[in-house]
Amino acid sequence: MKSRWSLRWWNPYTTPPAGLEHFYAEEITDGRERPLNLERMCAPGDGWAICWSPLHETPPRQLSLETKQRIRRKALSRRAAAKVPLFADSFIAERLAAQPDYFGVVEVQHA
User: Which helix (H) or strand (E) segment is 53 a member of?
Assistant: First the structure.
């Protein structure tokens, strides 16, 4: 797992010295061990802090359109049952008829 280590100004009551930016330096490593060159750039109590954050190499998984539509229909049913339990069926039918593409409704033809 790759890690991003950065040297940032962490004192909320003052500004960085000599017109420096709040973000000073950055290094990317292959583990969680702190890079020595960032440790040499700051001392305890000087206002700078070494910060760590993970680097995600794989993008988040995307849901398919069918899965999104199924989740939307379930959420609509839950909301309707909680807010208007007596009229939930008619409320759901109205919403599905108003936005069939959003909820993935396929009209069934009766013979």
Answer: strand 48-55
* Euclidean distance between CA atoms 111 and 105, whole angstroms: 19
Mean of pLDDT over the chain: 85
State whether 26 and 46 are in the same domain: yes
Residue 46 and residue 7 share a domain? yes
Flag whether 108 is in a domain: no
pTM, 2 dp: 0.49
* 48 and 88 fall within a common domain: no
Alpha carbons within 13 A on the beta-carbon side of 33: 5
* Residue 101: CB atoms within 10 Å: 8
Higher pLDDT, 37 or 96: 96
Work out how many domains the chain is built from and give that number: 2
- Provide the phi-psi class of 108: left if phi over 0, else alpha when psi is between -120 and 50, else beta: beta
Residue 61's alpha-carbon distances to 73, 79, 88, 102, in angstroms, are 21, 26, 33, 20
